[in-house]
Amino acid sequence: MFTKVLIAEDLDTISFAVIQLLQKLGINEINHSKYCDDAFLKIKKALHDGLPYDLVISDLSFKRDHRDDKLTSGEELIEAIKKVQPTIKTIIFSIEDKSFRIKSLYTNLGINAYVCKGRDSIQELESTINRLCNNEEIIVSNEIERNLRSNTLLEIEQYDILLLKSLAKGLTIEDISTEFKNSKIKPNGNSSLEKRVNKLKIYFKATNNVHLIAITKDLGLV
Fold it and tell me: pLDDT digit string (tens) for 39-78?
């Protein structure tokens, strides 16, 4: 079983439930942070002291307040942690159920498991922790696995996501072209971008750009 676990969660009720579970599993050292910056500092200090954490359990969304934090989401926190401790086990425990966002956590950040908050989620979290201890590297619940197998998600590239996000911000094709050129993202010509947008509209059966953004937002792509 894990010996040292960090919980990144800003809701006390959720943290308390997770802490109770970890205590039930016999985990001796359990720490908790309400802010991503504080959680990352705990990770770095533990590494510096030669007593690293075995596991991080993190939410995705953290409510903003008066603090000016550098890390404001669970995604940013896990990305930062992986840079300093690549082998640490990571579980996302969140209410988020958008398929693409969940898929990106596995493919881009290399998380080990994802548990959706809801009915019986503490029991599922317990099962997930036990499975991680048995060296199951990647754990996906049946519901999430079905969503991740969606053909829609398999055919959408990161380039398309960047394009859709730019459209969602209200940028014109000309604006996107300039932005992509500055970021060295290719293709970035007006004609190429227009063709890509038209392809996406056909793919998602969208009548116009506004309809396209609405559909892809529902899918969690933007």
Answer: 999 999 999 999 999 999 999 999 888 888 899 899 999 9
Encode pLDDT of 109-124 as tens digits. Answer: 889 999 989 888 999 9
| Cβ neighbours for 120, distance < 8 A, ≥ 6 positions apart | none
Short-list 89, 87, 84, CA closest to 71: 84
Give φ, ψ of 203 to 5 degrees: -60, -45
Does this model's pTM top 0.90? My answer is no
Write the pLDDT tens digit of every residue in 150-201: 545 545 777 888 999 999 999 999 999 999 999 999 999 999 999 999 989 9
Angstrom distance (rounded) from CA 148 to CA 219: 12
Per the structure block, which two tokens stand in for 56? 């991080």
Long-range contacts of residues 108-115, Cβ cutoff 8 Å, at least 24 apart: 109/75, 109/78, 109/79, 109/82, 110/82, 111/78, 112/137, 112/138, 112/139, 113/138, 113/139, 113/140, 114/139, 114/140, 114/141, 114/144, 115/91, 115/141
Give the distance between the most distant pair of CA atoms in the chain.
Answer: 60
The whole-angstrom separation of Cα 120 and Cα 208 is 41
- Among candidate residues 105, 206, 202, the one with its CA nearest the CA of residue 155: 202
d(CA 90, CA 5): 10
186-192-194 Cα angle (round to 5): 125
